C-alpha cells in the first residue's frame, strides 16, 4: 500500500474504469478479467500514464456481490503487480458495506480505493462528511472521492469538497464528474494543490480540463482504445493541444457511438459489444441490462473496421 503522498502523485493520466466480463451464465469471467488487465498494461496503461479501477460503475458494481468484488480485486492486483496503480471501486450506499469492501481492497494489496457518496437518498454535506470520516477511521488506504452526481443526485459543492480534503487526510484524489465545466475550474483552484483532481467526464471534456489543471481523465472507452487515450494524455503533457484535437476528431465517430443510447448504461453495453468484436473479453452485461442488439453490433463493427488510429487490434 502506497503512502498518501505517493498515491497522490501516481493518480494521473488515463484512469481506466474496467469493464467486468461475464460469461453466458452471468458468472464473472475470471480469466477475462486477467486478460483485460494484461491488455491494458501492455497497451500503455502504466504507472505515470494511467491507473486501473476495477468494480466501478463501468464494472457494473451494483450487480456485483461483495465477495465477487473481493475476488476481482485480487485478480487485477495479481496481474498488475506494481506496473500500474490499482484503485478498487468501493461504491455502496451503506457505509458499513463500504468499510468491508475497503478492507477487501486492503487485503488484496491494492494501492487505494475509489468511493462515491452514499446514494438512493439524496445526501447533504453532513451525510457525505460522516460517510468518508467513518471509512477513514477504519482504514489507512488512500481514497479517491467519486463525485457521482447522477447516482447520489447531488453535485458535491466546492465548499463541501474543500471540507472533505481538509478534514479527511486519507483523501488523495477526486474523480470530478460535474457536468459543469466552470465548476470544474473552481474545484481545481480550490483544492488542486492539495489532491489530484481528475476529469471524471472523460474524453468529451478534454483537453479543456487539462488546461484547467486536471491531472488526467477517467474513461471506460480505454477498455477498447487504450492507446488512443494514452496518446491524448501524452499530447496534453506536452501541451500540444492541436494534436489532442486531431486525435479526438479521428476518434469521434467511435466515441459518439459509445456515448449514444437510450439509457445511462448504454455506453457500457456498446463498449462490451465492441470488445467482443475485436477479441477482447467484453462478455455480456448482467440483468437487468441486456446485450447489444444485432443492429448495434453491426454499427460497432463498421466503426471498428474504419477506426483510423493505432490499437493492438487494429491492423491498419
From TrEMBL:
Enzyme Commission number(s): 4.1.3.3, 4.2.1.41, 4.3.3.7
Residues making up the signal peptide according to the UniProt record: none
Keywords: Lyase
CDD domains with a match to the protein in the record: DHDPS-like
Pfam families on file: DHDPS
GO MF terms, alphabetically ordered: 4-hydroxy-tetrahydrodipicolinate synthase activity; 5-dehydro-4-deoxyglucarate dehydratase activity; N-acetylneuraminate lyase activity
Enzyme's top EC category: lyase
Keyword Lyase carried by entry: yes
Coiled coil: none
Keyword Lyase: yes
PANTHER family: 4-HYDROXY-2-OXOGLUTARATE ALDOLASE, MITOCHONDRIAL (PTHR12128:SF66), DIHYDRODIPICOLINATE SYNTHASE (PTHR12128)
Similarity section: Belongs to the DapA family.
Name by which UniProt lists this protein: Dihydrodipicolinate synthase family protein
Native species: Thermatribacter velox
Lineage: Bacteria, Pseudomonadati, Atribacterota, Atribacteria, Atribacterales
Amino acid at each position: 500500500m502506497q503512502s498518501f503522498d505517493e498515491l497522490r502523485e501516481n493518480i494521473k493520466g488515463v484512469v481506466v474504469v474496467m469493464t467486468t466480463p461475464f460469461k453466458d451464465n452471468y458468472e464473472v469471467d475470471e480469466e477475462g478479467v486477467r486478460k483485460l488487465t494484461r491488455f491494458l498494461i501492455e497497451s500503455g496503461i502504466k504507472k505515470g500514464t494511467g491507473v486501473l479501477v476495477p468494480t466501478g460503475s463501468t464494472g457494473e458494481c451494483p450487480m456485483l456481490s461483495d465477495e465477487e468484488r473481493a475476488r476481482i480485486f485480487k485478480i487485477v492486483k495479481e496481474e498488475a503487480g506494481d506496473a500500474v496503480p490499482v484503485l478498487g471501486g468501493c461504491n455502496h450506499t451503506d457505509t458499513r458495506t463500504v468499510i468491508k469492501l475497503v478492507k477487501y481492497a486492503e487485503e488484496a494489496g491494492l494501492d487505494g480505493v475509489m468511493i462515491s457518496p452514499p446514494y438512493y437518498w439524496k445526501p447533504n454535506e453532513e451525510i457525505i462528511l460522516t460517510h468518508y470520516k467513518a471509512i477513514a477511521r477504519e482504514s489507512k488506504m488512500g481514497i479517491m472521492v467519486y463525485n457521482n452526481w447522477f447516482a447520489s443526485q447531488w453535485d458535491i459543492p466546492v465548499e463541501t469538497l474543500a471540507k472533505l480534503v481538509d478534514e479527511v487526510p486519507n483523501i488523495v484524489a477526486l474523480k470530478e464528474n460535474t457536468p459543469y465545466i466552470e465548476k470544474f475550474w473552481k474545484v481545481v483552484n480550490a483544492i488542486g494543490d492539495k489532491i489530484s483532481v481528475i476529469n471524471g467526464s472523460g474524453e468529451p471534456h478534454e483537453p479543456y480540463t487539462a488546461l484547467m489543471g486536471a491531472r488526467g481523465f477517467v474513461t471506460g472507452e480505454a477498455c477498447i482504445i487504450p492507446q488512443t487515450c494514452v496518446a491524448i494524455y501524452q499530447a496534453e503533457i506536452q501541451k500540444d493541444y492541436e494534436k489532442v484535437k486531431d486525435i479526438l476528431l479521428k476518434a469521434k465517430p467511435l466515441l459518439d457511438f459509445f456515448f449514444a443510447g437510450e439509457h445511462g448504461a448504454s455506453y457500457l453495453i456498446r463498449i462490451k459489444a465492441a470488445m467482443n468484436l475485436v477479441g477482447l473479453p467484453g462478455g455480456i452485461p448482467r440483468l437487468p441490462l441486456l446485450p447489444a442488439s444485432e443492429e448495434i453490433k453491426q454499427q460497432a463493427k463498421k466503426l471498428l473496421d474504419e477506426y483510423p488510429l493505432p490499437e493492438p487490434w487494429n491492423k491498419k
